[in-house]
Amino acid sequence: MSSTFLSFLFGVLAADLRAVVMSDIPSEFQRITEEHVDAILYGHLCKRSGLAIWLFSKAFRHGKLIEIKRCELHRTYDHRAASNDPLAFGENDIEIIATIQKSGSALSTVGLLIEDKVDARQAVNQGERYRARAAFGIRKGSWDDVKCLLVAPQKYLDSAYPDGDVGDSGWDKLISFEDIAACLKSYGAPTREVDTIVNATLLANSWNRPVPEAVQFWKDLKLFQRAFYPEVPIFASPQQGARVNVWPSFFENQLRNNRHDIQRRRIQLVHSGKRHVSLFVKNVAYRDFRPVALALIEPGMNIGAEGKTWQSIQIQVPEVNPLLSVQSQANRLDEVFKAARRLFDFFEANHVALLGVPQSK
Questions:
Q1: Does position 51 have pLDDT exceeding 90, yes or no?
Q2: How far is CA 46 from the centre of its chain?
Q3: Which end of the chain has less neighbouring CB within 10 Å, N or C?
Q4: What letter does residue 322 receive in the DSSP assignment?
Q5: Chain centroid to CA 123: how far?
Q6: In sequence order, what are the beta bridge partners of 249?
Q7: For position 175, what pLDDT does the model report?
Q8: Residues 142/111, Cβ–Cβ less than 8 Å
């Protein structure tokens, strides 16, 4: 490999980026998840804050929050046997026990059970299961009254309940992230927290934001391939995302320079992770694939871990980090392309036997 040519080709790249674990996505590029929202809500709801006062007034009409007695994240229960209710199980994202006073009434202990959604679908019977767990809490004396809230972006709530009517869904009230963000802002919550809640409502939050170093890596990898391995074409997905663990493919028909004879429904070559290139044979059971592959594999090859319907033959390669420059990993990438070429040649020599493994579906 010509170091002079490499320096010219990749001279504009930074060579000393920090090393990270391969599957990590820097926090500033991560999509906002329910866990991020949970942490913010918990920080405000574990005390008698402006948000807690507002939320309890929404849940319990004419109720005044006096004290937060307990606030916990991700409480899981299974009351099916004790309650004789098949729905009385599952997880409460946020569970709060508090003391409130309704106008003209004595103090009472209430529960507030919160499910928050960023974009994930509701699980089967999720609202009804919240309601069943809430009802059992009254039976066993955990609270005198209880409400179940679904908290999500307004577009999510509008899609799930177009007319705002929760009916018999199990939810007592729908609360939007937009309203929560406005409440936090009105009470002077940190701008970072308000922005996080607002950003969780945006369509762009459906995927991780691109990491500039990784985006540049995939672009430069294609240049590297064209310059040094023109006979081993590579495809790196342009999909939205952080692009840290979107691993490239080597399509077998392109390696044969035949656009029409495509076998990727059964065969795929992938640089699939940190330390190996894999030749995948799809829709075969491991028990059928293993004895065939064992009789064929060459020194330096091994059979991958058992998959559900995809089985593999692998060649180990040095670890490649998409957050480092292509130039700084040229020797490692040499091994990747050589492994891909070797596995393709292996498939060509043994395709009758490999494609002859009985299909599992």
A1: yes
A2: 27
A3: C
A4: T
A5: 16
A6: 235, 270
A7: 95
A8: yes
Rounded to the nearest angstrom, the gap between the alpha carbon of residue 61 and the centroid of all alpha carbons in its chain is: 37
CA 275/CA 272 separation, integer angstroms = 8
Q: Which residue reads 């980026």 in tokens? A: 17
pLDDT digits (tens, 9 = 90+) for 250-271: 766 666 665 555 555 688 888 8
- Domain extents in the chain: 3-27+209-355, 32-205
Strand pairing partners for 284?
Answer: 359
- Strands 107-116 vs 145-152: parallel, antiparallel or unpaired: parallel
Q: Which two tokens stand for residue 90?
A: 């599952």
| Average pLDDT for 67-80 | 95
Report pLDDT digits (tens) over 86-98.
999 999 999 999 9
The answer to whether 127 touches 169, Cβ cutoff 8 Å, is: yes
Mean pLDDT of all residues in 279-287: 90
Residues 256, 40: Cα–Cα separation, whole Å: 54
pLDDT of residue 124: 82
Amino acid at 268: Q
What tokens appear for 216 in the block?
Answer: 């540049």
pTM above 0.85, yes or no: no
For residue 17, what pLDDT is reported? 28
User: Dihedral sign, CA of 155, 198, 209, 114?
Assistant: negative
Buried b / exposed e across 248-266, counting CB within 10 Å, b at 16+?
A: bbbbbebbeeeeeeebeeb
CA–CA separation, 32 vs 141, rounded Å?
36
Is residue 220 within 8 A of residue 236, CB to CB? The reply is no
Q: Averaged over 27-56, what is the pLDDT?
A: 87
DSSP 71-113: EEEEEEEE-HHHHT-TT-EEEEEEEEEEEEEETTS-EEEEEEE
Residue 309 CB partners (closer than 8 Å, separation 6+): 282, 283, 284, 285, 360, 361
Other CB atoms within a 10 A radius of the CB of residue 224 amount to 24
Give the mean pLDDT of 56-68.
Answer: 93
